[in-house]
Write a structure and sequence with these properties.
531 residues; mainly alpha; Fumarase C, Chain B, domain 1; Fumarase C, Chain A, domain 2; three-stranded antiparallel beta sheet; two-stranded parallel sheet; 5% strand
């Protein structure tokens, strides 16, 4: 029997969204929240015939000045949904579509959208029975919410449009519902508007991205620690006082603590005290100036890791905070609050999400940049602490080693830089200039997803180079416990590069292995907690 996640519209988390989206957890609707939804609907129905309400007794958008007969409620709502099923292009995966559905369901559970409880029950039924709408990715301006993508969810509730079956094939909704014995809904006033007028596509997709982004950052730190060991770097840059006391940014302190944990038992990483003593010894008979070949400090990509990755972490922490507010927010229009004037506002506007998804996109681009720079140091014989050029194990010149493997990493860094140009500043007016400032939030989320996916390859090449360096130095026995886990994880899938071979498969295998998150599980199995 599947485990459950209780959705309540108040304190659900990104983890809750991802769990239900995975299909491994059923969603249960909180009783108190459903009571609030019912009461909201009943209160709204009492005033619907008495006062003009946008989208209930008026047209939509620029046509708000047109009054609509109350008897046309179903036709008005249905026409809205049908007319906005215009999204195009590649489809969101079932996993992503489920996340979008969870985000929309939870927003309606907040209880101020004034939809009938039956609408929420139908959404929950679809999730639990794996009836997943087919949602094209392109077409949202992120202003009056993700109107296009969400319409492709709403249309299935009335038995139209398309869904995925269990085999992942696309079929007509009507056929699937008939097979399941499920009756489609008939939309009542405001329900079409409430279903499509919100930020749930960018929020649902953003939740998946952020969950994976934290996994990526943690694995990047593990790979970094292995490279530090291969370079016999100093442990000094991670000393607690330098971060927790001197410059206590949360991300910086968390990253430094992780690095201290990872290298704590390494026999390759050296202390600053040891470096200083060696330098003192070599400098005893210096009259003027003399090179000692001892570097008290390494380059920034090996030394400023807490400051660099810490800033990435802080960006993601901020994004998580904004997303979790939005997961539990009423983000449609209008909203009903008992004994108050109907709220005609703009909670559907995606600017808060667009801005942080752009921020996450930039932060993840930086993660790829520093990974590629460490890779470069491993491959450059003038910078690699005694390693051969391009990590060629035997017959350099005859063999090229990792010379070619750097190219996709470098190319993807450049590609990421072109992708992370902010979408949230690309406003283009639409809807007869009613939507005259728009967020492009779903574009920002899709951009962040592209960078996230590219980074798995960059990190894979760095990891392969890092374990190759350990093999060349024959220093496996001196690795930290964490370093041995990372090394074994890699070598269980890809052998040492003894002579040149076809490497695309190696990179693909390791990129997919990192994406699975299994490395984090292996590290946890030896009792290591990663922040």
């Amino acid at each position: 029997m599947k485990r459950t996640v209780i959705l309540n519209g108040n304190d659900n988390t990104i983890e809750d969204v991802v769990k239900v989206a995975s299909g491994d957890f059923r969603c249960v609707l909180d009783e108190n929240s459903m009571k609030r939804v019912k009461e909201s609907r009943e209160g709204f129905e009492k005033i619907a015939d008495q006062v003009p309400i946008y989208g209930v007794t008026t047209g939509y958008g620029e046509m708000v000045h047109i009054l609509i007969d109350r008897e046309k409620e179903t036709e008005l709502q249905t026409n809205l949904v049908r007319s906005h099923c215009v999204a195009i292009g590649p489809r969101f995966s079932k996993f992503e579509s489920r996340a979008i559905m969870v985000a929309r369901l939870n927003a309606l559970l907040k209880g101020y959208s004034a939809v009938r409880p039956e609408v929420l029950k139908q959404l929950a039924l679809y999730l639990n029975e794996d009836i997943i709408p087919v949602i094209p990715e392109i077409g949202s301006l992120g202003a009056s919410g993700d109107l296009g993508p969400l319409s492709h969810i709403a249309i299935t509730l009335i038995g139209e449009g398309y869904v995925f079956n269990k085999e992942g094939n696309v079929i007509k909704t009507a056929e699937f519902l008939k097979e399941k014995g499920i009756k489609p809904l008939s939309l009542k006033f405001k329900e079409g508007l409430s279903l499509i007028n919100g930020t749930s596509a960018m929020t649902g997709l953003g939740s998946i991205i952020l969950d994976k982004a934290f996994q990526q950052v943690r694995q990047a730190e593990l790979i970094t620690a292995l490279v530090l060991e291969s370079q016999e770097a100093s442990s000094s840059p991670f000393a607690q006082s330098g971060h927790d006391i001197a410059r206590p940014h949360k991300g910086q302190s968390d990253c430094a603590k992780n690095m201290r944990t990872f290298i704590s038992d390494s026999r390759l990483v050296v202390s600053h005290e040891k470096l200083r003593m060696e330098l003192d010894k070599k400098g005893e008979k210096i009259d003027n100036a003399k090179s000692t070949e001892i570097f008290l400090q390494k380059a920034y990509s090996l030394r400023c890791i807490p400051q660099f990755i810490g800033a990435i972490r802080d960006s993601l922490y901020h994004t998580r905070n904004i997303l979790e507010i939005e997961i539990n927010a009423s983000n449609d229009n209008p909203l009903f609050f008992e004994n108050e004037e109907v709220f005609h506002g703009g909670n559907f506007h995606g600017q808060p999400i667009a801005t942080v998804m752009d921020l996450s996109c930039i932060a993840l681009t930086q993660l790829g940049i520093i990974s590629e720079r460490r890779l470069n140091r491993l491959l450059n014989r003038h910078l690699s602490n005694g390693l051969p050029e391009f990590l060629v194990k035997v017959n350099p010149g005859l063999n090229c080693g990792f010379a070619g493997a750097q190219y996709p990493a470098t190319a993807l860094v450049a590609e990421n830089r072109t992708i992370c140009n902010p979408a949230s500043i690309q406003s283009v007016p639409s809807n007869g200039d009613n939507q005259d400032v728009v967020s492009m939030g779903l574009i920002a989320a899709r951009n962040a997803r592209r960078v996230l996916d590219n980074n798995w390859y960059i990190l894979a090449v760095e990891l392969l180079a890092g374990v190759q360096a350990i093999d060349i130095k024959e220093c496996y026995s001196e690795l930290s416990a964490v370093g041995k886990v990372v090394y074994n994880f890699t070598r269980s899938k890809v052998p040492t590069l003894n002579e040149d071979r076809y490497m695309s498969d190696d990179i693909e295998v390791i990129a997919n292995a990192l994406k699975s998150g299994k490395l984090l599980d292996l590290v946890a199995n030896i009792g290591i907690e990663i922040l």
